[in-house]
Design a protein that fits this description.
Shape: globular
Distance between the termini: 15 Å
Number of domains: 1
Strand content: 35-45%
Number of strands: 5
Helix content: under 10%
Radius of gyration: 12 Å
Structural class: mainly beta
Largest sheet: 5 strands, antiparallel
Number of helices: 1
Length: 78
């Protein structure tokens, strides 16, 4: 997992609870289309669905990549 630099003054980048759709948990960043941001940790944990490859996590973002995509960086799996 890459070290994520947190910008405490940013108004758009923040840590968020989320569900990530991914077949494996090896990646450190995910495109916006794979991430569903949720309000609470409980919602993220309750949304876990291994059959649908939905994994609860804390993410940081969204950030723009050099390719023009919006990305979320994995902070930790829940």
């Amino acid at each position: 997992m890459p070290h994520v630099i947190i910008d405490p003054e940013s108004k758009s980048l923040a840590e968020r609870f989320a569900l990530i759709k991914s077949p494996k948990k090896r990646r450190a960043r995910f495109p916006e289309g794979c991430v569903t941001v949720l309000e609470t940790e409980q919602q993220a944990r309750e949304g876990r669905d291994e059959a649908r490859e939905l994994h609860p996590a804390v993410v940081y973002g969204p950030s723009s990549s050099s390719e023009g995509q919006r990305l979320y960086y994995l902070v930790r799996w829940l």
